[in-house]
Amino acid sequence: MTQSPGQGNALDNLLTESRTFPPSDEFAAQANAQPALYEEAKADREAFWAKQAERLHWETKWDQVLDWSGAPFAKWFVGGKLNVAYNCVDRHVESGHGEQVAIHWEGEPGDSRAITYAELQREVSKAANALTSLGIGAEDRVAIYMPMVPEAIFAMLACARVGALHNVVFGGFSAEALRTRIQDSEARLVITTDGQYRRGNPAPLKPAVDEAVAGAPSVEKVIVVKRTDTEVAWTDKDVWWHELVDSQSDQHTPEAFDSEHPLFILYTSGTTGKPKGILHTSGGYLTQASYTHNYVFDLKPDTDVYWCTADIGWVTGHSYIVYGPLSNRVTQVVYEGTPNTPNEGRHWDIVEKYGVSIYYTAPTLIRTFMKWGADIPAKHDLSSLRVLGSVGEPINPEAWIWYRENIGGGKAPIVDTWWQTETGAIMISPLPGVVSTKPGSAQRPLPGIGAKVVNDEGVEVPHGGGGYLVLDEPWPSMLRGIWGDEERYRDTYWSRFKDQGFYFAGDGAKYDNDGDIWLLGRVDDVMNVSGHRISTTEVESALVSHPTVAEAAVVGASDETTGQGIVAFVILRGGAGADAGGAEAIKALRDHVAKEIGPIAKPRQIMVVPELPKTRSGKIMRRLLRDVAENRTVGDVTTLADSSVMDLISAGLQSGK
Ligand code: WTA
């Protein structure tokens, strides 16, 4: 399962990068973060986190900062009580900021809406009352399957307010993917929209919900927001948002929940076909989301306009659109659509229109902007931008430099933030104004966080050495398990370095000579396509569920734009027919994967092969397939059960060209 870190990885060339960019004196002088933060955290970690928790409003204060006696299940701020939604909304109104814009929402077709904190409070209260009217309360699960409309955020906060867990499912996932996530979490309610705008056109969304709900008996009701006004089929479970929610009272008294009260489940791909329901709780999660958002982005709530381009379907949208920013009283842009609608300058139009000062995006999008050309951002006034962020995959130095020069005016610090759905919030990142940044490196654990690069034996490697990234101290926003599967939680994250008690992140990493950390990509069977985690097994199961496919092996091959691209090798069934390997049939297979998982999982390339390379124990040697997919000379084949297989594959591909 585990490859050696960085193996066959084009990212190795990152390590020759040696430029550094020290913060300007002006930036350093006004920065939220100061060098002393590192010292303070080192001197007393728990006291440090207790101080960060004071950023929030607690109805009842905790009596213990950390209880790690049930490791690997942590409890943070034990005995404390708070309401997460109150912290993100009401307290800002109570402190006199009700008229501050919380969300500048920008619809893809050009419609927009400015939502103040006072209005947000009313909307979230109405939605919370609506949930209560349906009998949804503490510990119930609510699936949210929506595009980036304001109601998606209201819905998440309404769940938090009444103590229900939201399970947000990315709107690009298929009905089947939605069904498994609803079923695994036994959601009682689904919140969705009639349709969504994608690349300038309305596309239906509700039919996928209908299909999923038909196979998910736990669902009692479906709330539907009208967004595109497309015709939708109606079932007796369905109720319109505007009919149910708009008639509710806009007053709602939030109840304080235990610090360890569950907040949400978010499914993410693991190394097996079944997605993992990552569970997060309240007090620790919100503390770290708030703390990191404040220091990593240097947020000044009175003057900044922040924009995170993620979708709420991913953890970045949870922690850096909803919980971190709103707990910090941000003014932020939320954009509904694609970056090239109506043209490739859309993001820069938005930056200009709202005076965005902090911009957080993914390397895959930066590389896409590069491809579209520097003349596009050059036509816009981007001088409001003062901090730039990157997340989701390693950022190559060329893209980093391009981002700095063409978007950041050659001076905005870039924060390359490493974290995961499981970590809940940023773990490794330079602090702007304190750390001299380096193109391509996430650099160092944040104050209060313990991260190391270790070898196979769990021993820390010396500077210049490579190995596996581990987290060696519990952190407040760490996952509290995998929904309904305690064993899988222990196995996946805590068994690899059991003796040391380290959390195994699944990423390869390296120290440079200064001791800064460089992430090298996944070391397990998880691919990273445009910053989205997709497991090879998931795509393989989708392929073999097609009647023409006998066997499939999937690898992530490096891709200039998306980081990795999905390349599949399939063996067709005997009776599949002569056309089964033709262009039409391959297209059908790609569409089949999109239907089973979602368009993001569509293989870039599918190659029909007579055999797959396997070891004597029957394990597919993906390393060799990756060599083929990346057009390299095939590596060592001596452990293959039949070493002629690779010749057969190569010969077949040659003749097929
Ligand atoms: C990768 C996204 C390098 C990594 C927040 C991790 C990164 C996985 C970075 C988590 C980064 C994320 N540099 N790699 N700055 N950020 N990754 O759960 O492989 O969708 O394990 O969370 O993305 O993906 P997830």
TrEMBL record:
Q: In this chain, where does the modification N6-acetyllysine occur?
A: 619
Please give the cofactor(s) recorded in the UniProt entry for this protein: Mg(2+)
Q: How is it modified after translation?
A: Acetylated. Deacetylation by the SIR2-homolog deacetylase activates the enzyme.
Transmembrane portions of the chain: none
Question: What EC number is given for this enzyme?
Answer: 6.2.1.1
- Which protein family is it in? Belongs to the ATP-dependent AMP-binding enzyme family.
Q: What name does UniProt use for this protein?
A: Acetyl-coenzyme A synthetase
